[in-house]
User: What shape does this take?
Amino acid sequence: MPTPPAGGGFNVLQSLQNAFTTLLNYVPNIIGALLVLIIGYIIARLIRAGISKLLRKVRVDEKLTHGKGGEYVSRFSPQGKPSQLVGLVVQYVLMVFVIVSAVGTLNIPAVTGFVNLVLSYLPNVLAALLIFLVAAAIAAAVGGLVHRTMGDTPTGRVARSAAPTLVMAIAVFMILNQLGIAETIVNTTYIALIGAVALGSALAFGLGGRDAAADLINSGYRRAQQQSGQVQRDLQVGRERAEADARAHAPNGFGQGNGGHEATAQYATPQPPPQASPTPPEGMPAAPPAGATRPGDPYTEPQPGRTEPVTPTPPGGTPRR
Assistant: This one.
Protein backbone atom coordinates (compact mmCIF):
# COMPACT_ATOMS: atom_id res chain seq x y z
CA MET A 1 0.00 0.00 0.00
CA PRO A 2 1.52 3.31 -0.97
CA THR A 3 2.25 5.82 1.77
CA PRO A 4 0.25 9.07 1.43
CA PRO A 5 2.27 12.11 0.70
CA ALA A 6 3.36 14.22 3.66
CA GLY A 7 1.04 17.12 4.51
CA GLY A 8 -1.88 15.76 2.49
CA GLY A 9 -5.01 13.58 3.06
CA PHE A 10 -7.04 12.89 6.25
CA ASN A 11 -5.61 10.99 9.21
CA VAL A 12 -8.58 9.15 10.79
CA LEU A 13 -6.51 7.56 13.47
CA GLN A 14 -5.21 10.88 14.60
CA SER A 15 -8.75 12.33 14.73
CA LEU A 16 -10.04 9.45 16.84
CA GLN A 17 -7.09 9.78 19.11
CA ASN A 18 -7.75 13.49 19.56
CA ALA A 19 -11.45 12.87 20.32
CA PHE A 20 -10.64 10.19 22.83
CA THR A 21 -8.13 12.48 24.50
CA THR A 22 -10.69 15.28 24.71
CA LEU A 23 -13.27 12.87 26.19
CA LEU A 24 -10.81 11.70 28.76
CA ASN A 25 -10.12 15.30 29.66
CA TYR A 26 -13.89 15.87 30.18
CA VAL A 27 -14.41 12.72 32.26
CA PRO A 28 -13.68 14.47 35.58
CA ASN A 29 -16.08 17.27 34.58
CA ILE A 30 -18.79 14.78 33.64
CA ILE A 31 -18.33 12.84 36.86
CA GLY A 32 -18.49 16.06 38.85
CA ALA A 33 -21.67 17.16 37.03
CA LEU A 34 -23.31 13.77 37.69
CA LEU A 35 -22.39 13.96 41.35
CA VAL A 36 -23.81 17.47 41.55
CA LEU A 37 -27.06 16.31 39.91
CA ILE A 38 -27.45 13.27 42.15
CA ILE A 39 -26.67 15.06 45.38
CA GLY A 40 -28.79 18.06 44.40
CA TYR A 41 -31.74 15.85 43.48
CA ILE A 42 -31.58 14.05 46.83
CA ILE A 43 -31.42 17.33 48.72
CA ALA A 44 -34.30 18.78 46.69
CA ARG A 45 -36.46 15.72 47.41
CA LEU A 46 -35.79 15.97 51.12
CA ILE A 47 -36.61 19.66 51.16
CA ARG A 48 -39.80 18.99 49.19
CA ALA A 49 -40.94 16.36 51.69
CA GLY A 50 -40.16 18.63 54.64
CA ILE A 51 -42.05 21.61 53.21
CA SER A 52 -45.08 19.49 52.29
CA LYS A 53 -45.19 17.98 55.77
CA LEU A 54 -44.89 21.40 57.40
CA LEU A 55 -47.72 22.83 55.29
CA ARG A 56 -49.94 19.87 56.13
CA LYS A 57 -49.35 20.44 59.83
CA VAL A 58 -50.47 24.06 59.60
CA ARG A 59 -53.57 22.88 57.64
CA VAL A 60 -52.84 24.83 54.48
CA ASP A 61 -54.69 22.24 52.37
CA GLU A 62 -57.95 22.75 54.27
CA LYS A 63 -57.69 26.53 54.17
CA LEU A 64 -56.98 26.76 50.44
CA THR A 65 -59.44 24.08 49.30
CA HIS A 66 -62.34 25.32 51.42
CA GLY A 67 -65.24 26.86 49.52
CA LYS A 68 -66.07 27.26 45.85
CA GLY A 69 -62.71 28.81 44.93
CA GLY A 70 -60.90 25.72 46.19
CA GLU A 71 -61.88 23.86 43.03
CA TYR A 72 -59.24 25.81 41.10
CA VAL A 73 -56.52 24.87 43.57
CA SER A 74 -57.55 21.21 43.59
CA ARG A 75 -57.64 21.14 39.82
CA PHE A 76 -54.03 22.23 39.36
CA SER A 77 -52.41 20.69 42.43
CA PRO A 78 -51.34 17.04 42.58
CA GLN A 79 -53.95 14.88 44.32
CA GLY A 80 -55.84 18.04 45.17
CA LYS A 81 -53.34 19.06 47.87
CA PRO A 82 -51.71 22.50 47.69
CA SER A 83 -49.00 21.41 50.12
CA GLN A 84 -47.71 18.89 47.58
CA LEU A 85 -47.86 21.53 44.85
CA VAL A 86 -45.73 23.93 46.88
CA GLY A 87 -43.26 21.17 47.72
CA LEU A 88 -43.01 20.19 44.06
CA VAL A 89 -42.39 23.78 43.03
CA VAL A 90 -39.64 24.13 45.61
CA GLN A 91 -38.03 20.95 44.31
CA TYR A 92 -38.09 22.21 40.73
CA VAL A 93 -36.56 25.52 41.75
CA LEU A 94 -33.77 23.77 43.59
CA MET A 95 -33.19 21.45 40.63
CA VAL A 96 -32.76 24.45 38.37
CA PHE A 97 -29.92 25.68 40.53
CA VAL A 98 -28.51 22.15 40.64
CA ILE A 99 -28.57 21.92 36.85
CA VAL A 100 -26.91 25.31 36.53
CA SER A 101 -24.14 24.14 38.85
CA ALA A 102 -23.75 20.88 36.93
CA VAL A 103 -23.54 22.69 33.59
CA GLY A 104 -20.97 25.04 35.03
CA THR A 105 -18.97 22.00 36.11
CA LEU A 106 -18.98 20.66 32.52
CA ASN A 107 -17.44 23.91 31.31
CA ILE A 108 -19.28 23.87 27.96
CA PRO A 109 -19.86 27.48 26.78
CA ALA A 110 -22.95 26.78 24.63
CA VAL A 111 -24.77 24.82 27.32
CA THR A 112 -23.77 27.33 29.96
CA GLY A 113 -25.27 30.19 27.92
CA PHE A 114 -28.54 28.32 27.44
CA VAL A 115 -28.85 27.53 31.12
CA ASN A 116 -28.14 31.14 32.03
CA LEU A 117 -30.94 32.22 29.70
CA VAL A 118 -33.38 29.84 31.37
CA LEU A 119 -32.24 30.96 34.78
CA SER A 120 -32.87 34.60 33.93
CA TYR A 121 -36.48 33.69 33.03
CA LEU A 122 -37.03 31.78 36.26
CA PRO A 123 -38.10 34.81 38.39
CA ASN A 124 -41.01 35.43 36.02
CA VAL A 125 -42.15 31.83 36.46
CA LEU A 126 -41.94 32.09 40.22
CA ALA A 127 -43.88 35.36 40.22
CA ALA A 128 -46.58 33.84 38.00
CA LEU A 129 -46.88 30.85 40.31
CA LEU A 130 -47.13 33.13 43.34
CA ILE A 131 -49.88 35.15 41.62
CA PHE A 132 -51.78 31.95 40.94
CA LEU A 133 -51.58 30.75 44.54
CA VAL A 134 -52.60 34.13 45.97
CA ALA A 135 -55.48 34.44 43.49
CA ALA A 136 -56.68 30.93 44.36
CA ALA A 137 -56.65 31.81 48.06
CA ILE A 138 -58.55 35.06 47.42
CA ALA A 139 -61.10 33.25 45.25
CA ALA A 140 -61.65 30.68 48.00
CA ALA A 141 -62.08 33.43 50.60
CA VAL A 142 -64.51 35.39 48.42
CA GLY A 143 -66.56 32.27 47.69
CA GLY A 144 -66.75 31.42 51.39
CA LEU A 145 -67.75 34.98 52.28
CA VAL A 146 -70.54 35.00 49.70
CA HIS A 147 -71.76 31.62 50.94
CA ARG A 148 -71.87 32.78 54.55
CA THR A 149 -73.55 36.04 53.62
CA MET A 150 -76.20 34.95 51.10
CA GLY A 151 -76.56 31.26 51.94
CA ASP A 152 -78.07 28.78 49.49
CA THR A 153 -80.40 31.28 47.83
CA PRO A 154 -80.46 31.35 44.00
CA THR A 155 -78.65 34.68 43.97
CA GLY A 156 -76.15 33.36 46.49
CA ARG A 157 -75.35 30.33 44.35
CA VAL A 158 -74.81 32.49 41.28
CA ALA A 159 -72.61 34.95 43.17
CA ARG A 160 -70.67 32.12 44.80
CA SER A 161 -69.79 30.77 41.36
CA ALA A 162 -69.23 34.10 39.62
CA ALA A 163 -67.00 35.80 42.21
CA PRO A 164 -64.18 33.17 42.24
CA THR A 165 -64.37 32.90 38.45
CA LEU A 166 -63.89 36.66 38.10
CA VAL A 167 -60.92 36.61 40.48
CA MET A 168 -59.23 33.74 38.62
CA ALA A 169 -59.89 35.38 35.23
CA ILE A 170 -58.06 38.51 36.37
CA ALA A 171 -55.26 36.31 37.74
CA VAL A 172 -54.87 34.58 34.35
CA PHE A 173 -54.28 37.93 32.63
CA MET A 174 -51.76 38.89 35.30
CA ILE A 175 -49.92 35.57 34.92
CA LEU A 176 -49.70 35.87 31.15
CA ASN A 177 -48.43 39.41 31.47
CA GLN A 178 -45.85 38.33 34.03
CA LEU A 179 -44.61 35.51 31.81
CA GLY A 180 -44.30 37.90 28.89
CA ILE A 181 -46.53 35.83 26.60
CA ALA A 182 -48.04 38.09 23.92
CA GLU A 183 -48.01 41.10 26.20
CA THR A 184 -49.64 43.43 23.68
CA ILE A 185 -52.50 41.05 22.93
CA VAL A 186 -53.04 40.23 26.59
CA ASN A 187 -53.11 43.88 27.66
CA THR A 188 -55.42 44.87 24.80
CA THR A 189 -57.80 42.00 25.54
CA TYR A 190 -57.87 42.80 29.24
CA ILE A 191 -58.64 46.47 28.64
CA ALA A 192 -61.33 45.55 26.10
CA LEU A 193 -63.01 43.14 28.51
CA ILE A 194 -62.99 45.63 31.37
CA GLY A 195 -64.40 48.32 29.10
CA ALA A 196 -67.10 45.98 27.79
CA VAL A 197 -68.15 45.03 31.32
CA ALA A 198 -68.27 48.68 32.41
CA LEU A 199 -70.21 49.74 29.30
CA GLY A 200 -72.64 46.84 29.64
CA SER A 201 -73.27 47.69 33.28
CA ALA A 202 -73.89 51.34 32.42
CA LEU A 203 -76.30 50.46 29.61
CA ALA A 204 -78.09 47.92 31.77
CA PHE A 205 -78.60 50.48 34.50
CA GLY A 206 -79.45 53.33 32.13
CA LEU A 207 -81.84 51.44 29.84
CA GLY A 208 -82.97 48.36 31.69
CA GLY A 209 -83.20 50.14 35.01
CA ARG A 210 -84.95 53.23 33.69
CA ASP A 211 -88.42 52.06 34.72
CA ALA A 212 -87.17 50.94 38.09
CA ALA A 213 -85.52 54.31 38.67
CA ALA A 214 -88.73 56.12 37.63
CA ASP A 215 -90.81 53.96 39.99
CA LEU A 216 -88.37 54.67 42.78
CA ILE A 217 -88.56 58.43 42.23
CA ASN A 218 -92.37 58.39 41.92
CA SER A 219 -92.82 56.32 45.05
CA GLY A 220 -90.55 58.68 46.95
CA TYR A 221 -92.52 61.71 45.70
CA ARG A 222 -95.87 60.13 46.65
CA ARG A 223 -94.55 59.21 50.06
CA ALA A 224 -93.36 62.78 50.58
CA GLN A 225 -96.78 64.15 49.58
CA GLN A 226 -98.56 61.77 51.94
CA GLN A 227 -96.29 62.72 54.77
CA SER A 228 -96.81 66.41 54.01
CA GLY A 229 -100.61 66.06 54.31
CA GLN A 230 -100.24 64.06 57.49
CA VAL A 231 -97.99 66.72 58.97
CA GLN A 232 -100.55 69.41 58.18
CA ARG A 233 -103.32 67.37 59.78
CA ASP A 234 -101.21 66.75 62.85
CA LEU A 235 -100.50 70.48 63.15
CA GLN A 236 -104.21 71.29 62.84
CA VAL A 237 -105.13 68.76 65.52
CA GLY A 238 -102.46 70.16 67.82
CA ARG A 239 -103.71 73.71 67.26
CA GLU A 240 -107.31 72.73 68.04
CA ARG A 241 -106.28 70.90 71.17
CA ALA A 242 -104.24 73.88 72.34
CA GLU A 243 -107.17 76.26 71.81
CA ALA A 244 -109.57 73.93 73.64
CA ASP A 245 -107.15 73.56 76.55
CA ALA A 246 -106.67 77.34 76.71
CA ARG A 247 -110.44 77.94 76.78
CA ALA A 248 -110.92 75.29 79.45
CA HIS A 249 -108.37 76.89 81.80
CA ALA A 250 -109.25 80.53 81.04
CA PRO A 251 -111.04 82.71 83.74
CA ASN A 252 -114.80 83.54 83.49
CA GLY A 253 -115.69 85.65 80.51
CA PHE A 254 -112.25 85.23 78.81
CA GLY A 255 -113.35 83.15 75.89
CA GLN A 256 -115.25 84.44 72.90
CA GLY A 257 -118.17 82.74 71.28
CA ASN A 258 -119.73 79.50 72.40
CA GLY A 259 -116.42 78.18 73.69
CA GLY A 260 -116.08 81.09 76.13
CA HIS A 261 -119.66 80.72 77.40
CA GLU A 262 -119.15 76.98 77.84
CA ALA A 263 -115.97 77.54 79.83
CA THR A 264 -117.70 80.26 81.95
CA ALA A 265 -120.67 78.02 82.61
CA GLN A 266 -118.35 75.14 83.49
CA TYR A 267 -116.34 77.05 86.10
CA ALA A 268 -119.18 79.36 87.44
CA THR A 269 -120.31 78.94 91.08
CA PRO A 270 -123.59 77.00 91.14
CA GLN A 271 -126.59 79.07 92.37
CA PRO A 272 -129.35 77.60 94.57
CA PRO A 273 -132.73 77.14 92.92
CA PRO A 274 -135.27 79.97 93.47
CA GLN A 275 -137.66 79.43 96.40
CA ALA A 276 -141.40 79.88 95.93
CA SER A 277 -143.13 82.67 97.87
CA PRO A 278 -145.47 81.51 100.66
CA THR A 279 -149.15 81.56 99.87
CA PRO A 280 -150.90 84.43 101.77
CA PRO A 281 -154.03 83.75 103.86
CA GLU A 282 -157.44 84.24 102.40
CA GLY A 283 -158.43 87.83 102.00
CA MET A 284 -154.79 89.05 101.85
CA PRO A 285 -153.34 90.24 98.56
CA ALA A 286 -150.38 88.27 97.23
CA ALA A 287 -146.95 89.83 97.56
CA PRO A 288 -145.61 91.24 94.36
CA PRO A 289 -142.66 89.50 92.71
CA ALA A 290 -139.18 90.63 93.62
CA GLY A 291 -138.23 93.73 91.77
CA ALA A 292 -141.81 94.53 90.66
CA THR A 293 -143.26 98.01 91.27
CA ARG A 294 -146.79 99.20 91.52
CA PRO A 295 -147.93 102.74 90.84
CA GLY A 296 -148.64 104.65 94.05
CA ASP A 297 -146.80 102.15 96.23
CA PRO A 298 -144.59 104.19 98.60
CA TYR A 299 -142.48 101.17 99.45
CA THR A 300 -141.34 100.23 95.99
CA GLU A 301 -141.85 103.31 93.82
CA PRO A 302 -138.59 105.21 93.40
CA GLN A 303 -138.45 108.75 94.73
CA PRO A 304 -137.54 111.68 92.52
CA GLY A 305 -133.88 112.63 92.69
CA ARG A 306 -132.70 109.21 93.92
CA THR A 307 -131.07 106.50 91.95
CA GLU A 308 -132.47 103.64 94.06
CA PRO A 309 -135.82 103.08 95.81
CA VAL A 310 -136.14 104.44 99.36
CA THR A 311 -138.20 102.63 101.92
CA PRO A 312 -140.50 105.22 103.73
CA THR A 313 -140.88 105.20 107.48
CA PRO A 314 -144.20 103.62 108.44
CA PRO A 315 -146.42 105.03 111.15
CA GLY A 316 -145.00 104.26 114.58
CA GLY A 317 -141.40 105.31 113.74
CA THR A 318 -139.96 101.85 113.10
CA PRO A 319 -138.34 101.49 109.70
CA ARG A 320 -139.56 98.60 107.73
CA ARG A 321 -137.06 95.92 106.92
Observations:
- The longest helix spans residues 12-57.
- The chain is about 70% helix and 0% strand.
- Confidence is low (pLDDT under 50) at residues 257-269.
- Residues 279 and 285 are 10 Å apart (CA to CA).
